[in-house]
UniProtKB/TrEMBL annotation:
Protein name per its UniProtKB record: Xylose isomerase-like TIM barrel domain-containing protein
Residue ranges occupied by any Xylose isomerase-like TIM barrel domain in the UniProt entry: 45-248
Source organism phylogeny: Bacteria, Pseudomonadati, Thermodesulfobacteriota, Desulfuromonadia, Desulfuromonadales
SUPFAM superfamilies named in the record: Xylose isomerase-like
Gene source species: Geoalkalibacter ferrihydriticus DSM 17813
InterPro entries: IolE/XylAMocC-like (IPR050312), Xyl_isomerase-like_sf (IPR036237), Xyl_isomerase-like_TIM-brl (IPR013022)
Length: 262
């Protein structure tokens, strides 16, 4: 793996001290997943700076996954938006310390929560993201908006078009697509609408009945089709492997490297 590698591997921040040396020895680039309460640890800044030096010295990149539990950039409740802004501002600070160039963020839209009315969510979302995107752009960071519960790409399309910045792109999570969208919109149609906005992808598998984060090939997701669409629409997008079983990480890496040539 070289510093130009497009491939990252999910690593929870709470496991950074334990697993960091393993990542270095195997030359794995981490996507460091942060939870909101992690920021309440006064030692965090020092930990991030130290590991940033370690990964930089090894010629390895870092990406970041922002907190998302109970947070919502498009919330109608101002106090929820305020808490979300605080955590995402802290995330940008952490990403800057780590030298990360990509931060994955959740959009917060759920059809049932908003009664199918995207506008209720979109208006506060546009107001929320605009200053954060400007700040990210100044720091050389791209915010990658991940599909989660979306059943179609429309809400993400409208938000990305409304902001329309090179510092605000799409993180396509193929596992979430398979859970929530596969019977409503094909992979090809999703890429046809949002492929030009894709800057990052999350790779994991499932059988369609749970967010299992299996290694690619152990579920029912058509990864050969995905590979072709990535090559056509987003050939320079970075990739993050999200496999939760550490014993299955090595074979999953072999599969992903073979599929995507990384």
């Amino acid at each position: 793996m070289t510093e130009e590698s497009r491939l990252y591997v999910s690593l929870p921040l709470r496991m950074l001290e334990e697993q960091g040396p393993h990542f270095l020895s195997r030359r794995l680039q981490p996507e460091i997943a942060i939870k909101g309460p992690d920021f309440d640890d006064r030692a965090l800044a020092g930990v991030l700076k130290r590991w940033a030096r370690e990964f930089r010295a090894a010629g390895l990149g870092v990406s970041v996954h922002a907190p998302f539990m109970d947070l919502n950039p498009g919330a109608l409740e101002p106090l929820v938006r305020a808490a979300t802004l605080q955590r995402l501002s802290q995330t940008l600070d952490a990403a800057a310390r780590l030298g990360a160039r990509c931060v994955v963020v959740h959009p917060g839209y759920e059809r049932w929560r908003y009664g199918g009315n995207e506008d209720l969510w979109l208006e506060p979302s546009l107001e929320f993201w605009a200053p954060l995107v400007r700040r990210a752009q100044d720091a050389g960071i791209v915010l990658a908006l991940e599909n989660v519960f979306e059943e179609a790409p429309g809400s993400l399309e409208r938000l990305l078009e409304g902001i329309d910045s090179a510092a605000f792109g799409h993180c396509f999570d193929v596992g979430h697509w398979h859970l929530f969208c596969r019977d409503k919109i094909s992979l090809a149609e999703w890429f046809g609408r949002l492929g030009h906005r894709m800057v990052h992808l999350h790779l994991h598998d499932n059988r369609g009945d749970g967010d299992d984060h299996l290694p690619p090939g152990e579920g029912l997701i058509p990864f050969d089709e995905l590979r072709g669409l990535v090559e056509e629409f987003a050939p320079r997008a970075t990739l993050a492997l999200e496999v939760h079983d550490p014993e299955k990480l090595s074979p999953a890496l072999v599969t992903v490297r073979s599929l995507f040539g990384v």
